[in-house]
From TrEMBL, chain A:
<feature type="transmembrane region" description="Helical">
    <location>
        <begin position="298"/>
        <end position="317"/>
    </location>
</feature>
<keyword id="KW-1133">Transmembrane helix</keyword>
<protein>
    <submittedName>
        <fullName>Spore germination protein</fullName>
    </submittedName>
</protein>
<comment type="similarity">
    <text>Belongs to the amino acid-polyamine-organocation (APC) superfamily. Spore germination protein (SGP) (TC 2.A.3.9) family.</text>
</comment>
<feature type="transmembrane region" description="Helical">
    <location>
        <begin position="178"/>
        <end position="197"/>
    </location>
</feature>
<feature type="transmembrane region" description="Helical">
    <location>
        <begin position="329"/>
        <end position="349"/>
    </location>
</feature>
<keyword id="KW-0812">Transmembrane</keyword>
<dbReference type="Pfam" id="PF03845">
    <property type="entry name" value="Spore_permease"/>
</dbReference>
<feature type="transmembrane region" description="Helical">
    <location>
        <begin position="76"/>
        <end position="100"/>
    </location>
</feature>
Automatic annotation (TrEMBL), chain B:
<feature type="transmembrane region" description="Helical">
    <location>
        <begin position="393"/>
        <end position="419"/>
    </location>
</feature>
<dbReference type="GO" id="GO:0009847">
    <property type="term" value="P:spore germination"/>
</dbReference>
<keyword id="KW-0812">Transmembrane</keyword>
<keyword id="KW-1133">Transmembrane helix</keyword>
<feature type="transmembrane region" description="Helical">
    <location>
        <begin position="261"/>
        <end position="290"/>
    </location>
</feature>
<dbReference type="Pfam" id="PF03323">
    <property type="entry name" value="GerA"/>
</dbReference>
<dbReference type="GO" id="GO:0016020">
    <property type="term" value="C:membrane"/>
</dbReference>
<dbReference type="InterPro" id="IPR050768">
    <property type="entry name" value="UPF0353/GerABKA_families"/>
</dbReference>
<comment type="similarity">
    <text>Belongs to the GerABKA family.</text>
</comment>
């Protein structure tokens, strides 16, 4: 049963980032980027996952905070954990603001942003009521819905592919990738970072299964997420588009009961993945903070402050391009953090070996 | 006569003066052999057969042994309470005994289920008698591992209840927790098992029920065989089952009696009904007032055309119709059965035909409200059906303030909240298959270790 929930967590990340992040980085800069970033990103993510999963499987009852403290010592360990919490909080905001963009642009264009932000903040606030297993079950539930919607959207997308555009996509696909493209590709597979909090629930996690999912589901979603918009619009037209998948879905015509625009399949999909994304990042931050702080109430107060800052920042950062630029930068920082800590923890775990208390 | 007996006699005499249905019988004045009982809750025949007649037939030693075997000595502070519970108080040989056997409560015989109808299942339902209810359960669950633990609830009403579980299958930690919680209960008057269940969790649930209340012995038996606990209260014709999963609220007993394909079809239908009844009112407001572009053009125009003559916004239209529908449902529940159909017919006519003709509501709104009402009644367990009746207003509110966006927020919040609900270590939504013992133990182990 736990394996299914682990799979759903990985797939959720893949759906979310292959639709929200990856196209924004690769498709918008496709003429400089190419598709070669996808396999390189996959390889790097797999390497990082292998190192981290090996470490986490050595300490099946520990979360990231305890592993960091044990392997790196109290100060460096806590510093690494706090760094990750900070990165989580930042990405939570990028997701929050990205979601607001969709809502403002397509659903509530005349409603004040502060009102939408306050309403939207209620979803991550719910994280304070949850426990590990309830989060896992909830993620699995919404992943199932998202997967169904995604299959529908991709199916519609395949029908709209223009063979001429596809030729152009293949032609430019072999160019040397940029760092941002590689990082965005690796980000799609980041579901295993859920173990930072939920390792005691899932451990021991199968590395083979993780790789299998990366190569099958992950690569397929990444490819579809990047190629379909490119093959519908063409690389040239996508250069200046924001919200690439939404604009792509807007071109899909369908005859589904009461719907006739693909956009209204895409919006629920983006909303669901976005809500759960913000929720998961908030929950991860909250759980890690509650492990780091002597009192749980302190963690709650900090998370509440972070959520309030989301509302305030979303009023200040109203330009989507700014949000995208910082998000791309964030992903590079995340990538380096992930890989450096991955190598560090792996080496330290090898040196220290398994202890009775940890096993 | 010793001082304690004198004091007890005084207490009993005062009780007799204050209660017109209390009786004192002096069996033998010389020996000081007196009986006290409450006529309305005592079987007079039993008193004669078990106490009066043996007294005159047996020797003093034999009678002493007989009384020891059928009665028990009673501390003075428990005396009046036991008298109220239908026991006979017997003062004999300077000792005070109480006899349980004389208890007699009026009850009805076993009848067909009134709330949980079944097409092919047994047609027996619990009644307000613990003896009959236990008899029904033992008939449906003939297992030596069945345990029956007696408890008392209500600091003023002192009603007896039973906790039943299968010793082999039930989670012992859960059972111990529940028994500990029962001991701590401080509700003054508990007349229904659902009220007891509300107070058992550490935090009282306000919206979602934490137990399934059933009147069916077969559902009770099925629950016991899945390792769940069953609560019975003396005054209630219902049993309460815990821990439960959300799926239990959507499952009817017929599901396990009928062919699998048909059962799954009905199950899917019920979940669809649940979604429809919760979402439709909010969705109507969201899609008519905020985001009509979601629908295909023909449908959007049809809805707009239907609402053309209406003088007020969509949310008022929906609220008006929903409130009217709730009034109709309440009226049909509360009025005497003889005039119930008339009230429903009149209400239905006014709501359906007249309101539409008077341009108070659109035709499509009538379809929506009818669908919501019908879908609500499809949910087989009544407490969940009542919860859902309230939930649709929450989503209506969210749809009214922020359209489709608000509706999705409301839905995610609602689902997210349901996922947080726990009864002890058991989550409400841990397993679709309702096999609590398997999935929840592993999950709770994970939780604890984390």
């Amino acid at each position: 049963m736990n394996v299914l929930f682990y799979v759903s967590l990985l797939i959720y990340y893949m759906i979310n980032h292959s639709l929200l992040n990856l196209p924004n980085v690769i498709d918008r800069n496709y003429l400089q980027n190419g598709l070669s970033a996808l396999p390189i990103g996959l390889l790097l993510a797999a390497l990082n996952a292998w190192m981290l999963l090996s470490v986490y499987n050595r300490f099946p009852k520990f979360t990231m905070v305890e592993i960091n403290r044990y392997l790196c010592g109290k100060y460096l360990g806590n510093f690494l954990s706090i760094m990750y919490v900070a990165l989580t909080a930042f990405f939570g905001f990028f997701m929050f603001r990205g979601l607001m963009e969709v809502i403002i642009e397509f659903l509530m264009p005349h409603t004040p942003v502060w009102f939408l932000a306050i309403l939207l903040i209620s979803v991550p606030s719910l994280a304070l009521l949850h426990s590990d297993n309830s989060v896992i079950y909830m993620t699995a539930f919404f992943t199932l819905i998202a997967a169904v919607l995604m299959i529908l959207v991709f199916w519609l997308g395949f029908k709209e592919i223009d063979p001429v555009m596809l030729q152009g996509v293949v032609y430019h696909g072999w160019k040397m990738p940029s760092l941002k493209g590689i990082v965005a590709s690796a980000f799609v597979y980041g579901g295993y970072t859920g173990l930072y909090v939920m390792n005691p629930y899932f451990a021991r996690t199968s590395i083979k299964l993780t790789f299998l999912l990366f190569v099958t589901v992950g690569l397929f979603l990444s490819l579809c997420g990047t190629v379909i918009p490119l093959a519908v619009w063409g690389p040239w037209a996508l250069r200046n588009l924001n919200l690439i998948w939404i604009m792509t879905a807007e071109t899909f015509s369908l005859d589904l009961f009461v719907l006739e625009r693909g956009l209204f399949l895409m919006i629920p999909l983006l909303l669901i993945t976005g809500y759960i994304g913000v929720f998961l990042y908030t929950y991860k931050g909250y759980r890690l903070l509650s492990l780091l702080m002597p009192r749980k109430a302190t963690a709650k107060v900090i998370i509440c402050c972070v959520l309030v800052s989301y509302v305030i920042l979303s009023l200040l950062v109203q330009e989507p391009a700014v949000n995208y630029r910082y998000r791309e930068l964030y992903m590079v920082v995340w990538f380096f953090y992930q890989n450096i800590t991955g190598v560090l923890l792996y080496v330290l775990a090898k040196r220290k070996g398994r202890t009775p208390s940890a096993a | 006569m010793n001082e304690q007996i004198h004091k007890v006699n005084g207490m009993l005499e005062t009780f007799l003066e204050n209660n017109a249905d209390a009786r004192k019988e002096q069996v033998d004045g010389e020996q000081g052999f007196n009986l006290y009982y409450i006529m309305s809750v005592t079987e007079r025949k039993v008193i004669y057969q078990q106490i009066t007649d043996p007294y005159f037939r047996y020797s003093k030693t034999q009678f002493g042994q007989h009384i020891q075997s059928i009665g028990e000595e009673c501390p003075p502070d428990q005396l009046l309470l036991r008298l109220c519970k239908g026991q006979t108080v017997l003062i004999y040989d300077d000792r005070v005994y109480t006899i349980k056997k004389s208890l007699k409560y009026a009850t009805r015989s076993v009848s067909t289920p009134q709330v949980e109808a079944s097409i092919v299942g047994p047609l027996e339902a619990f009644v307000e008698s613990m003896a009959i209810n236990l008899n029904l359960i033992r008939k449906h669950y003939q297992n030596p591992d069945l345990r029956v633990v007696k408890f008392e609830v209500g600091t003023t009403s002192h009603v007896s209840g039973y906790l039943l579980y299968d010793n082999e299958l039930a989670d012992k930690t859960f059972v111990d927790n529940e028994l500990a919680q029962i001991k701590k209960l401080t509700i003054p008057n508990a007349q229904a098992v659902s009220k007891v269940q509300q107070h058992l969790p550490k935090r009282r649930s306000l919206l979602f029920p934490r137990s399934v209340v059933t009147e069916r012995p077969d559902r009770t038996s099925q629950a016991l065989s899945k390792g769940k606990c069953v609560y019975l209260i003396e005054t209630s014709p219902f049993a309460s089952i815990a821990p439960i999963s959300f799926h239990d609220f959507m499952a009817s007993m017929d599901d396990s009696y009928m062919l699998p394909v048909y059962s799954y079809f009905l199950l899917v239908l019920r979940y669809f009904a649940l979604l429809a009844t919760v979402i439709l009112p909010g969705a109507y407001v969201a899609f008519t007032a905020f985001n009509p572009e979601v629908f295909r053009v023909q449908l959007a125009l049809s809805i707009a055309g239907s609402r053309a003559g209406l003088p007020y916004p969509a949310f008022l239209e929906v609220t008006f119709m929903l409130v009217m529908m709730e009034l109709l449902v309440e009226a049909s529940l509360r009025v005497p059965k003889t005039i119930g159909p008339a009230a429903t017919t009149v209400g239905g006519l006014i709501l359906g035909e007249a309101a539409s003709q008077a341009n108070l509501v659109s035709d499509i709104m009538i379809i929506v409200v009818s669908a919501v009402a019908i879908a609500n009644f499809v949910i087989p367990i009544n407490p969940m059906s009542q919860t859902v009746r309230v939930l649709k207003y929450l989503l209506l509110f969210m749809g009214t303030v922020a359209g489709f966006f608000g509706l999705t927020i409301g839905f995610v919040l609602l689902v997210g909240y349901v996922f947080t609900l726990h009864n002890s270590n058991y989550s409400l939504v841990q397993s679709f298959k309702a096999s609590v013992s398997l999935s929840t133990k592993s999950a709770s182990a994970g939780r604890q270790s984390s």
